[in-house]
Amino acid sequence: MNAAIAHPSPNKDLFRGIACGMGAGALWGLVFLAPALVPDFTPIQLAIGRYLAYGFLSATLIGRNRKRLMAAMTPREWVSLIWLSLAGNTLYYILLAAAIQMGGIAMTSLIIGFLPIAVTIIGSRDDNAVPLRKLAPSLMLCTAGAICIGWQALTAPASGSTETQLAGLLCAAGALLSWTAYAVGNSRCLARLDHVSAHDWSLLTGLVTGAQVMTLIPITLLFEPVRHPAPAWLAFAAVSVAVAFLASIAGNALWNRMSRLLPLTLTGQMILLETVFALLYGFLWEHRLPTIMETTAFSLIVLSVTRCIAVHQTYASNERGRVPAQ
Question: Which long-range contacts (CB under 8 A, 24 or more apart) does 175-178 make?
Fold first, then answer.
């Protein structure tokens, strides 16, 4: 039998994975606007609002499938869900929101923009991964784009004191480390959990994350102000539900689907799309066009992603060509 008939085209999975990654990036980029939309609320309060809504929506959507999903989960999977929910949701979002409020969207987007490099380097060690030397041009373009964004952020007028900017930078770096661990760990889990769908894994993550943030409620009641006028609470509730549904439910489901279709070396590049959309939304929010430096950064990032896709497409085709005929 001809090998082309016996084996599905890897390019089909590649393009489907890329489409899912683009959708996830567009939805996740909205997260960067949330702290700016409700600036009177602290990062912990923002995390509580978003992930309580995520947990409630997840419990509602699981519905009748609850018993089946619970039966399919082992203690190992629950442990994985606990630390993935912490690294990719609770801790990450608190650090991200704090970085945005103290350092601004541009600086935070810069730091998060280095996620692809970290994830791609880790993914290059996987079996049958694209060699790192072939990905070097794409990583260099990614680095150049991040440097352009950083230069723009550093030359822009500071919105706060030097100490505040430094604290924001440290929070952004912490968010970078936290989400790198999540991206790698989540891909590893999805690779071995073929009995749980990508959407169900997102909903289970929502349940665990919702339970985690409930432990933060006493902290915010003791140490943070909670007295806001009714319109502020309504805006907070609307932003929390919107971000929970769009970014957490839909965005996570798309990302999980993508993680099953693409290798880690390409998954890392897909994270860049979150940075692109976050900056685009930031420009719309600030009612301005990108500067020359920001336009250059966009161009470099797009080139980085397209270059990485082309390398993986060629590599997948070559690997398929080596499959012996049946």
Answer: 175/92, 175/95, 175/96, 175/99, 175/108, 175/111, 175/112, 176/111, 176/112, 176/114, 176/115, 176/118, 178/87, 178/88, 178/91, 178/92, 178/95
